[in-house]
Specification:
single chain; alpha/beta; TIM Barrel; Rossmann fold; 4 domains; nine-stranded mixed beta sheet; six-stranded antiparallel beta sheet; 32 strands
Length: 683
Amino acid sequence: MHIPDWDDRFLSVYEPQDYVQAVRETGADGVMLYFQSHLGLCYWPTQSGKVHRAARSRDLAGEALAALMRAGLPVCAYYSVNFNNQAWLDHPDWRLKPSAPATIGQLPRERYGIVCLNNPAYQAFVDAQIDEIATYPVDAFFFDMVWWNGVCICDACRSRFLGETGEEIPETIDWREPGWIRFQSARERWLAEFTAALRDRARAGRPGVDVYHNFALGLSNWTRGVSFDTVAGHDFLGGDFYGGRAEQLLISRLMLNLTPSRPAEFMTTVAAGLTEHTRLRPQAELTTKAMAATASGAAFLAILAIDPDGRIEPDAIARVRVAFDAARAFAPFLGGAPVEDVGVYCSDRSKMSFAENGRPITASPGASLPDYPHFKALTGACRILQQAHVPFGVVTRANLDELDRWPVLVLPNVTRMGRDEVQAFQDYVARGGRLYASRETSLALDDGSRAEDFALAELFGCYHRGEAGGRLVYARARAWPLPERPLAHWRIDGGTGATVVAAGADEVLVTLTTPYGYPDPGAVGDAQWASIHSSPPWTDTDEPLVVRNRYGDGQAVYSALDIEAGETPEHDQLFLSLIRALAPHSARLAVDTHPCVWASAFDQPGADRMTVCLLNYQLEAPTIPVPASRVSVRLPTGRRVVAIARAPEREPIPFEEPEPGRVSFDAGTLDLFAMFIVEHAPA
C-alpha cells in the first residue's frame, strides 16, 4: 500500500472488509497490515504525522485490524523507517546526504525521500509514531528499510562521529587505516543501536509484542551498514528477497542459524518483482519459493501490491492460495534442529574489498550489491555443497560458542576477522574439528591491522608471501581426483585470486603451475607468451597452493586459491573432494539424485523422529520430475529405525538397514517436494 494521495481516485474503492476477505481467501494464518508506507502517509488518525487523504474520515488501519481479529488472524503492524517522503519534504534538514550517488537496485531512486536515522528530531518523530501504533492491539511490529542507503555525511552524522571520536569523517576508504575502520564501525553500531531502540520503543507501548526488521540487506556490501549485531534487535529474522534460487538457498540457511528464534520468515512478491504490478510470478515459481521456505524450516510471506484505486487482483489472491495450501500440508511436521555436517562461515566483517583502498568516499559503492570477494566464495561453497547434497548450514560469529555442532567448517575467503574468531577457530580445530580455509582468510583483522602473515598461520601450516601475479595461474593436484591437465584459476577482483605461501604443513596437496612468460602478460613486441589467444600452462613448480596440516586433535586444509568461487566443474570437484576428505565420519544425510534437488533434514528428538525434505528447485518452469532418488540417513547415536512414512499422508515407505544406526530408502519420483518422517527409538 505504498500509494500517494494527490489524486482523489487513489484508494477511492478500498474497503478494509474487502481486504480482510481477500486475506482469508489466501488461507493465510497471519497478516502484515500497513499502518504507514514509504510515502510517510498514515492509515490511522495520527497526531504526529500526516494522514492519507483516503483515511481522513476513517481509521483504515483500525478497521482492518478489528476485522482481522474477529477472523482470528494475528496481525503485524508495518512501519517504514528512513524511507519517508513526507518527512523528507517537510524537513529538509532530516534528509540523508549520501557521499556518492546511491541507488536502490532497479527501483526508481528519484521517487524515494530518505531521511537520516541519526537526526535526533527524526528519531523523536519515529518514537511518537510508534507510541501511537502501540495503542492498537497488534501482535507484532515490522520495521522496514532499517539500513543506510549510502554513506551519509549529513550534519547529524558528522556531529555524532566528531562527538564520539573527536575526528572528522574520513575522506578516503582504506580498510587498513584505523580511522576509516572507526568510522565504518560507528555506522554499524549506530544502526544496531537504532534497531534495538525501535524494538524497545514498541515494547514500551505494547509489552511482549514481537518485533523484527527487514533483514533483506543482511548480506549487502558495507555501505548499508547492516552488521550481525543488528540481530539483537530482532525477535526473529525475516526479509523480502528477489534474487532467485541461489539467494534463497544462502539466506534461508543463514537465517536458520542466526535468527534469535525459529522460524525465520522468507518474503517475496506475488508480482514478478517490486517494479512489476500486473505481471505476476508464474504459479509454479511462487509455489516453489513457498516450498523452498518449508524445506529450510522457514515461514513464507507473500507480498501483494494493492492497485492504486484500492482494488485487489483476484488472480494474485488465487496464486497465493495455491502456494499456501501446498506448504500448509507439511506444517505439522516442521521444526527441530537442522542436520548439518558442514558449516559454511559467513563473515559480516568481510563485506568489503581491499581493492577499494585509496578511493575517495565520494566513490563509495552506490548500490547494495554483495560484490565483495568473500560473498563470491561463500555463495560458491553453498552451491557446490547443495548440488552434491552434502548437508550444510551457514554459520556466523553468533555461533562461535557452538562450533562443535559442525564436524567440518569452511572459511571461504574470510578477508577480515576478529581476534575472537581467530581464537575460536584455533580452539575448534585443537579439540578435533576439521577446517577448510581459502585465500586471504585471517590475513587482516577487523581493527584495520593487516599482518605480514595469516593470524591462523600456525593452524594452516603455511605462511603468507604475497599475491600471485599475472592474469591467471594453474593448479596441479598431487593426490586429488582432478584431470591430468592442471586447473586454471583466473583473475578475480583485481588479482589472480591466489595468494603465494610457503608451506610448513604436513602435506602439500596441490602445487602451482604457471603459463609461459609468467607473470608477464605478453605483448606483440616480446616473447613472453606461447599461444596468441590464451596463456596455456607451461612450468610446473613445487610452490604449494593447497596444504593439509594437523593441529591439536584436528586438521586444517588451506587453499591459496578461493577454489569455491571458480564456477567450473573442475573447481567444484576439487573443493568437494577436499571437504569430503576432511569429514571425520560418514554423512548424516546422503541423497543420490539430480543436482537441482535441495536436500535437508531436521532432528526432532522430542517426537523421536527426523524429517527429510527433498525439493526439486529448477531454474526454469515447467519443473521436470526427477527420477527415483535414494536416501540414506544416519540416525542419532543409540537409536534404531522404527518406521519411515511419507508426509503428509503418512504413507509407509519400505526401508533397509545397511548397517546399525543407518537406514536407506527409495524416495520415488520427485515432482516438486517430498517430506519423509523417520521414526526412531532406543537401540
